[in-house]
């Protein structure tokens, strides 16, 4: 890949372009570490959750996020489309732009997304001018519905949220990458940089991770490790991976001129 | 008079605006959104909204979060 092509390789979501393909979650670690984690991750998009505000001038996460980073509020806590729409509208009113990551869960044990409610919320919010990034269980029919509903990207889960189990849904994510003409951003369950790299090699447009970093021994170093892995995976994808032989072997050194001949 | 703020009973003076109520509670207007009785009040209208007895206010802000 030429240097020029590398420079032009942007992640485009809802008409906004980003150099970084690593979306960082901000949950489960202290506010003091957020700036360093964002910087070491090279992240240009960070997710946030909307909650009731405490009285009394408490420290606010927005004071700790470096300038220029796009805020991606999620609708966590929503159990149906109506609640997700309410949370999205409140998030926009805080004043962080019009990006929203839709998350709708009815299941509290496995935290699996409700795909049909997610399609409904996507349709409503896209019509209202939001850049809608729905979190979903990787299903081709749902992904097509999300695209038709106006989603700006599709965010299939790799494994249950917070599990760090890696690419459990790999084959189904590949189908979305192959068939859906939107950025496919692998979200939830990615537990190690190697897994992020693999998803990028498959052609994922970006990776979102939170728990893998928040539960690491060194949060800031792990943020950087993910950045490097995502970059390596993207470059490998653009380069075109070498072929796999089902059987046999193929020497990579010349098969003539051996000194024993 | 009494109102509900984030699910808790709060006493406030008659005729207070949403703007002043939030100021008294030390909320930073730049970092919140507010709903009264299920309707979002735009920030520029906080000063015009006069609290009524029994109003239910939700004041929200961002916190760390990834999924869920």
Structure commentary:
- The complex is a heterodimer of chains A (261) and B (68).
- Chain A has nine helices and ten strands.
- Chain A has helices spanning 3-8, 31-41, 81-94, 115-127, 140-149, 170-179, 193-202, 211-214, 219-239; strands at 11-13, 16-18, 22-25, 45-52, 70-73, 99-102, 131-136, 155-156, 185-187, 206-209.
- The radius of gyration of chain A is 20 Å and the shape is globular.
- Chain B has 68 residues and is mainly β.
- Chain B has a single domain, classed as Beta-grasp domain (Ubiquitin-like (UB roll)), CATH 3.10.20.
- Chain B is 10% helix and 35% strand.
- Chain B has one helix and five strands; from the N terminus they run ββαβββ.
- The N and C termini of chain B lie far apart (37 Å).
- Chain A binds chain B through residues 25-29, 31, 34, 47-53, 55-57, 60-62, 71, 73-74, 76, 89-91, 93-96, 103, 105, 111, 135, 161-162, 187-188, 208-211, 214, and chain B through 6-7, 25-28, 30-35, 40, 42-43, 58-68.
């Amino acid at each position: 890949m030429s240097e020029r092509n590398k420079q032009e390789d942007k992640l485009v979501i809802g008409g906004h372009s980003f150099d970084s393909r690593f979306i960082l979650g901000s949950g489960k670690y202290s506010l003091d570490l957020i700036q360093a984690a964002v910087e070491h991750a090279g992240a240009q998009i960070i997710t946030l959750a909307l909650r009731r505000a405490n009285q009394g001038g408490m420290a606010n996460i927005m004071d700790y996020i470096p300038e220029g980073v796009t805020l991606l509020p999620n609708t966590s806590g929503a159990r149906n489309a109506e609640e997700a729409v309410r949370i999205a509208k409140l998030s926009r009113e805080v004043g962080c732009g019009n990006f929203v990551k839709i998350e709708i869960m009815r299941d509290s044990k496995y935290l699996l997304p409700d795909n049909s409610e997610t399609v409904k919320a996507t349709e409503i919010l896209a019509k209202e001018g939001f850049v809608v990034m729905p979190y979903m269980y990787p299903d081709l029919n749902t992904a097509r519905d999300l695209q038709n509903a106006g989603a700006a990207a599709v965010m299939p889960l790799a494994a249950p949220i917070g599990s760090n189990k890696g690419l459990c849904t790999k084959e189904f994510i590949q189908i979305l990458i192959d068939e859906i003409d939107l950025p496919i951003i692998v979200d939830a369950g990615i537990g190690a940089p190697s897994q992020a790299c693999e998803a990028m090699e498959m052609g994922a447009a970006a990776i979102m991770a939170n728990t893998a970093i928040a539960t690491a021994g060194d949060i800031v170093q792990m943020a950087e490790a993910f950045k490097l892995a995502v970059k390596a995976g993207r470059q490998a994808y653009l380069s075109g991976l070498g072929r796999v032989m089902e059987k046999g072997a193929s020497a990579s050194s010349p098969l003539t001129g051996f000194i024993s001949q | 008079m009494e109102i509900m703020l984030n699910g808790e009973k709060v006493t406030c003076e008659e005729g207070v605006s949403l703007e002043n109520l939030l100021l008294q509670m030390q909320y930073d207007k730049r970092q919140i959104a507010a709903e009264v009785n299920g309707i979002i009040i735009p920030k520029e209208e906080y000063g015009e909204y006069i609290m009524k007895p029994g109003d239910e206010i939700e004041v929200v802000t961002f916190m760390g979060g990834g999924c869920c």
